[in-house]
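User: ok so my PI wants both of these folded by tonight, can you help

Assistant: No problem, let's get them done. Here's the first:
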Amino acid sequence: MSASSDATEPSPPVASGESMPRQTRRARLAAAIEGVAPTHYAPLPGGLVQLPVARVSQSLLLYRVDNGRLVAELAEHLHDAGRDWEALRADAESEAVQRELHELLMAAAADPRGPILQELERQGTQTEPLLVDADGIVINGNRRLAAMRTLLARDRHRFASFEEVLVAVLPADTPPEDIEFVEAALQMAPETKLGYGWINRRIKLRRQRDELKLPPDWIARAYQFEDTGQLDREIAELALAEAYLDEHCRTPDHYAVIADAEALFAGLAAQLDALPEHLRAVWRAAGFAMIEMRERVNAPLDREYPFADPAPKFLPVATLRRFAHERGILGDETAAGDAPLPGEALESLRLVFAAREDSARNVQDLLDIMARVQEEHRERQQPNIMLRRIQDIRKRMDRLDPARLNEAQQRQLRGEIAAIQAQAAYLLGEHPETRFEQSKTTMVKAVSAYLRRWRAQRRDGGRQ
């Protein structure tokens, strides 16, 4: 782990559970708020409550291990160190763990997207109380506490006010599930989603649902979800991301490498869910390969299948069939048909996309084939588009009142109709030698442009 602050700076003071037992912290916090009128609002499941605010020594306060901002970073750190969550939680109040948390929190506090360190350095004062439980565990404001400790260690004279900090203290009987609610409501609701990071958010959601067994409707309310379906979707997206790290990259818990890929995993999860079951494994493998190659693709992948809706609808099957044919997995007779792709062919394709050493080639070929399938579909649709536009023009003419046309408009309409008649005769093969050279009017140019492209494509196709 590395902190974002300068390595030459003195180490900031971090409270130790060994130097100050929990009961001591609890007693001193209780004494600090005794008789203090509650003035600070905090959201609890039953609604807003008012809490007392007091100024206390920062040595009374500890960082929270289950801080939603650090879940992914801690998971990766624990994996590298061969440790687990239970051991970390059991040792949460030790000086060693608190210093580890401090380093991670400082990296977040110095992030330019939410420059807490810079703001506190500029202002030189605390403007909002930290929210803590009765034991001095910081529920909301861990990054601010880390920044104040770092600034105090850097310049004890200028930042002397940070020796003591303002805290709003939750009631001593606040249950753990209400503490989870407070954190979610204050920090992890949608309007602050970016600040938390999409992976941290989903890990926190999963723990609340699966480990703490909190009711889904309770979680949805805390996070301001429209329904519990969003909870299920976000946890499914996390599972897909972890499968990518574990199965494709062979680097479990290395969440940092996919910090920028939320839209891709969200899109892939949605598209896989919409696919027939027999196609999911191969498109999952293809999606993983595309995510791995995302920085080498000269286009935004979130607009491509399997991260966006397929256009046309048959794109997933047509692309796999073409890809399998070009790689020799399917013969000509199978590649040309509309029968379902054989199970052995789908498994062969899955293995192709799972081969990381060939990911660059596989992804580029896949994107090229999808582009060709889409272009061919557009070419086939052009005559239909032209006919629909002609039909639309005819319907508009049905509504046109002849009495409202002046002589100039009548002449122009006569020329337009003659041009369309000539184009229609040419198209139908009735008078191919007398193709009408259309005028420069908007309607004729629009129709004839479609016709010219369509005829050129037919001629080119006949030469192949």
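One down. Here's the second:
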Amino acid sequence: MNDRKTTNLLLLILVVPLFFYLLKTLSFIFIPLIASMFIALLFLPMMRWLKKKGSPKVLSLILVVVISGIFIKLSGELIQLSSKEILSADNAFFDKMQEKLTTLILSFEQFLGIDFLQGETLLGSFVKKENIVKSLVPTLGFVSSTLTMSLSTAFFVILLLAGSIDIQKILNNTILKQRVSSIKTFMKIEKDLLKFVKVKFFISLFTGLGIGIMCWAFGVSFPIFWGLFAFAINFLQMVGSVISVVLLSIFSFVELETTSMLLFFILSISSVQVLFGGILEPIFMGKSFSINVVTILIMLMLWGYIWGIPGLIMSIPITVFLKIMLERFPKTKVIADLIS
């Protein structure tokens, strides 16, 4: 028995790194598949309700496509509005931004004893022909891979909603081996992850609105852009709120002349992040999402390393899924307790 336990432990040590290596290597398959599972959860309650009303499945799928198309259209309009807002800025603003940011960088250079700009302007050091050419290829590759993954995700969503891929049956046949238990587990996963997605979406929405209103109230340029940025980056658990506050604080340094006004603006946008992300989000999430900070940071680093930005976004839903699965077995329940 001891030899068998030792053998199983050694096999586990070998299999776990291999498993994560395959996840990273085959990310072009796993990222759309996992993302489509979370997206499909949003539409499953509506699909079941339409099915009870006797609606054909084809009509329900068409309705899902229409709703998704409307959401994409509205998102595109907001992005275009934000782009027009930035393009409408006069050259005087960009000259002022360049001057202030150059001064800020130079002060850091003097403090650290380095010479990065070497007498050049800030924009001139970054906007060079060779730098633009070098960054063009990776940018095109990123856009191409993003488009491919988006189409793959849409394809998997249709398969999941059409019933071609049944997650509950997969759980029953592979892990749980009991029909009743697999149904209960799937319903809990659906309920908890649907709650997470809804709460995260509305918290991010109101955070973006709050940041945009603060920018407008203090006279900081591009309030629509900063509101959209805060909304999008807030989906990165813990990290997103810090990034938005830091970047917006640096940007506001360009426009807000007095130190007291700048400090009050930074306190205002920080208060918005604390109110929605630090107070309201945990309240609405409830006890089912009680995951300790250490686990969140570890999962962010792990999935961020494996899948990049999509991994950062999906790290917490994946952790919630694993926590629910671990709670179903007495031998692994202690790990679920540690996660909590």
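Residues 125-133 have pLDDT under 50 and may be disordered. The first helix runs from residue 2 to 25. Good luck tonight!
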